[in-house]
Amino acid sequence: MLRKQLAILLGAFAIAIAASVQASPTVHVLAPAALLGSIGGGGDCNDLDAAVYPGHAEVVGNGYDDDCDGLADEDANNNPSGDVSDLDGDTFSLANGDCNDHVPSIHPGATEIVGNYVDDDCDGLADEDAANHPSNDSADRDGDHVIIAPDAIFAWGFDPF
Fold first, then answer.
1. Count of CB atoms within 10 A of residue 118's CB?
2. What is the pLDDT of residues 98-145, one digit of tens each?
3. Which helix (H) or strand (E) holds 77?
4. Cα–Cα nearest to 44, from 156, 158, 138
5. How many CB atoms lie within 10 A of CB 53?
6. How far apart are alpha carbons 27 and 77 in whole angstroms?
7. Quick one: residue 105, left, alpha or beta (phi over 0 = left, psi -120 to 50 = alpha)?
């Protein structure tokens, strides 16, 4: 059976509309987005640290990507750090794109480890699969009200029926 699925965020409620070519549309009312763990949105690149999420101010000098843009310690104009030191010994400095200069397994080109809740390959996404599809993880493990999935609708998925 062919289906078209459309997910709509309506106020605080996620509504999924599945329209079947052979049947009339069905509407399912789901939990409020806040109950999905997302009040502030999605795209958390480190769901183990409440001080790291999209929109957070970048803290220059700490060696971390605080705002989930894939860069660590960039300036207010989003210019990459010029720091060429390599504190974790992974052969990548902040100037070379290292987004976490404290953990040697986190650097550009690293293998993304699905299920560890952090951005391993410095692309600004946590737990994307080998084909670079974003995670649909809707849990908020660090209490910052930001989930790993890009948004609550994506976290819910598009094929529950």
1. 22
2. 999 999 999 999 999 999 999 999 999 999 999 999 999 999 999 999
3. none
4. 138
5. 24
6. 44
7. alpha
Report the amino acid identity of residue 23.
Answer: A
Torsion of CA 50, 52, 58, 60, to 10 degrees: 80
Query: pLDDT by residue (tens digit) across 59-107?
Result: 999 999 999 999 999 999 999 999 999 999 999 999 999 999 999 999 9
Residue type, 50: A
How far apart are the C-alpha atoms of 33 and 39, rounded to whole Å? 7
Take residue 117 and report the two structure tokens written for it: 């809740």
Q: Which amino acid is at 21?
A: V
Within the chain, strands assigned E span 3-10, 13-20, 26-32, 41-42, 146-147
Strands 41-42 and 146-147: parallel
Q: Are 73 and 94 in contact, with CB atoms under 8 Å apart?
A: yes
pTM value is 0.72
Residue with tokens 């995670």: 135
Task: Return the amino acid letter for 98.
Answer: D
Q: How far apart are CA 110 and CA 120, in angstroms?
A: 6
